[in-house]
Sequence to fold (66 residues):
Amino acid sequence: MDDGIPTTEQLVSDIIEELRADPDTDQVLIDILSEHVVKMDPKSSAVADAATLIENLARQRGEQDL
Fold:
């Protein structure tokens, strides 16, 4: 039954899509977070996995600025 109230999954999806549509949002970071953390049933290692990827991203971007 559709009572017009979005599900939690739909709210999460809508927020991610709004962030992706914003040109000022870091798209790579949104991809990492949505793939690992911002989901209905993340793995127990989701935060650690995302943190590792974010650290690698920061390292790569730092090396590009040298």
User: Anything to note?
Assistant: The helical segments are 8-21, 27-36, 46-64. The mean pLDDT is 92.
